[in-house]
């Protein structure tokens, strides 16, 4: 999958960011929202607290001060079903600990509740101490919804990933084995209140007679 368009511009910007000598990634503090211009409404910022706690915030502002404010968002794992928690943890570890970039395509839920095909790019960032802590992400619709807006918030839960490719950022690509989620059991239909009025035996044929 070539990285192009909006995602390509983010990747180019990431490569131009200054970093300490020998550092594998730039620090978050060198980013400024005003540098991102039209990308800003599509940008998310994640902060790894621990393996199963990755806080997510949508940016969507032009004020540089927001980047220095405390993270205020939700845990990415709150959007993940139990059978995908380990795969999601391995994905974030690959981005930060290799480090590497990730480009993926997946089906997501829009704010309206509809589904859409989305392409995303995730890149690592370090904190002020140089520790790999942050992930900057950008997501775009593969096919823009008819009434979609550039800042339509996307619910990315990584449940239906159709394609995933790691990007070499100078330290190689990670060797990650993802678990195959067990199929979900088919839900049993709920009993409807009117079922109790339906006959429990088949309806008699036209040539059958019923006793009075």
From TrEMBL:
Domain of life: Bacteria
Region entry Disordered, spans: 180-212
Composition bias type Basic and acidic residues, residue spans: 181-195
Pfam family, one: PAS_5
InterPro entries per record: DUF1457, PAS-like_dom_sf
Name of the featured protein: PAS domain-containing protein
């Amino acid at each position: 999958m070539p990285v192009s368009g909006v995602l390509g511009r983010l990747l180019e910007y990431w490569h131009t960011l200054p970093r300490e000598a020998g550092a594998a990634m730039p620090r978050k503090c060198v980013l400024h929202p005003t540098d991102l211009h039209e990308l800003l409404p599509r940008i998310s910022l994640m902060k790894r607290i621990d393996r199963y706690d990755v806080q997510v915030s949508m940016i969507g502002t032009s004020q540089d001060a927001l980047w220095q404010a405390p993270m205020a968002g939700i845990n990415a794992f709150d959007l993940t079903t139990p059978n995908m928690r380990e795969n999601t943890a391995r994905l974030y570890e690959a981005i930060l600990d290799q480090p590497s970039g990730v480009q993926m395509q997946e089906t997501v839920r829009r704010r309206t509740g509809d589904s859409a095909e989305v392409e995303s790019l995730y890149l690592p960032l370090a904190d002020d101490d140089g520790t790999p802590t942050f992930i900057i992400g950008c997501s775009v619709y593969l096919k823009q919804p008819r009434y979609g807006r550039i800042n339509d918030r996307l619910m990315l839960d990584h449940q239906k990933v159709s394609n995933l490719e790691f990007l070499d950022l100078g330290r190689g690509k990670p060797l990650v084995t993802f678990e195959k989620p067990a199929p979900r059991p088919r839900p049993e239909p709920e009993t409807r209140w009117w079922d109790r009025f339906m006959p429990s035996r088949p309806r008699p044929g036209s040539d059958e007679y019923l006793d009075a």
